[in-house]
Amino acid sequence: MNNPGHYLLLMSFWYVVTIAIETAILVVGLSRRHSLRNRLFAGAWLTACTYPVVWLVLPRLISDYTLYLTAAETFAPVAECLLFWLAFGKTEPRTRSALIRDMTAIVIANLASFGGGWLLQKWIGDGTIWWEWLREFNTLK
Fold it and tell me: Where are the domains of the chain?
């Protein structure tokens, strides 16, 4: 896969998978103070903000799989919680329980997209290409 076009195609496929999983969870999980429109928007927007860092920046900085995975799966929910709070944190009614529910939903959505992606990869492949893109991306010139 030493082809940047193939890498971007792979990235695009998993982007759609990620948005589908995370949006479904955010629609159900975010507090009722947010309209359905804002929940749907958040599902796509939050992923759009963090996904390029996870796929394009972090692999260039971290070549060790375990360290990369730890950094990516920490960065994404923390950044998405912050972005969501900045964009929607002042939505009324502002309560501690609503904030906790929103942040919890975002973290669960991220965990679910990772787990769902892992399961889908196991289902569509034999497991030998799982995270292979990380090693190959680091060799792209």
Answer: 4-137
